[in-house]
Amino acid sequence: MDKLAIVILNWNGEKMLRQYLPSVLKYSFDEAVVYIADNASTDNSISMLKENFPECRLILLEKNWGFAEGYNKALAQIEAEYFLLLNSDIEVTPHWLTPLLSYMDAHADVAACQPKLLSIADRDSFEYAGACGGYLDRYGYPFCRGRIFETVERDNRQYDAPADILWATGAALFVRARIYNKVGGLDGRFFAHNEEIDLCWRLRIGGHRIVCIPESKVYHVGGGTLPKSNPMKTFLNFRNNLTMLYKCLPDEELNRVMLMRWLLDYVAAWEMLILKHSWGDFKAVYRARRAFRRWKSEFKADRKAIQQSRVQKNIPEQRRFMLLWQYYAKGRRHYSELP
Questions:
Q1: Cα–Cα distance between 14 and 308 in angstroms, integer?
Q2: How distant, in Å, are the alpha carbons of 44, 117, 280 from that of 179?
Q3: CB of 136 closer than 8 Å to CB of 183
Q4: Cβ atoms 338, 326 nearer than 8 A
Q5: What residues form DSSP beta bridges with 33?
Q6: What is the pLDDT of residues 3-27, one digit of tens each?
């Protein structure tokens, strides 16, 4: 059994692998085994890997399963104490694994962690996808130490202390394999987006901690698969976020939150149309809400099982304020300004 398996999921990412895989191998090979799980790429990824990076172990999947189920299929073929799910557009730094491994070895109650995520485009700023660890507000809107909505902070070492978080970024998610397998891994039905938040929230409900370890840092390109304005990304984010709320919210909060989200989602749709002139994103929100209504019944058993597994009722990393009010009405753009 491997101590640590770094698993990079690839789909037609030959260019990203050529550029960023060398840093992973250079700074990780002594502490981890590196796997590339391929989602049936149609480019030259596999031949390039065999020729240039023979030290990587290949897992070839028969079709494009998406991010969530692609990782589930790949990780089912690996025996390790820890998994590290790593995006192909990540550049790692010297000794980046040591703080993560040391912390996890020393804290048995921690199920998952993440490094500090910085931007390759601006190396002094956090990266949107996870920054220094993620949280949710009372209505399911995600934010991070270092990023609220579209406002990304510069890294002035203001969040360099380890901190308990609600969710660790899927761009560099370090997780105990035993617990990952026990809870069923990522929800493959999500395909992509919000799946790591859903997983980490389920872990927190079960009494496990999630932590950001900023002593470890990596640099992320971000948006390597879909740009932020892509209607498909909008659709997946809204549909999956609603599904995650339905699965994970406690009974006493569910109806109130879902009613408010009904209102807020349609407000967001019209804002996309009127202010951003994005007909595609407008339609994507309506499609997402219809898709959620259609498949909601599929998650009834999941909701029941998650609520029955609940060890921690009030999770402090799910904040009680309304992030939209804090951001737009009160002008609080930085994490440190929030209640």
A1: 44
A2: 35, 24, 39
A3: no
A4: yes
A5: 5
A6: 999 999 999 999 999 999 999 999 9
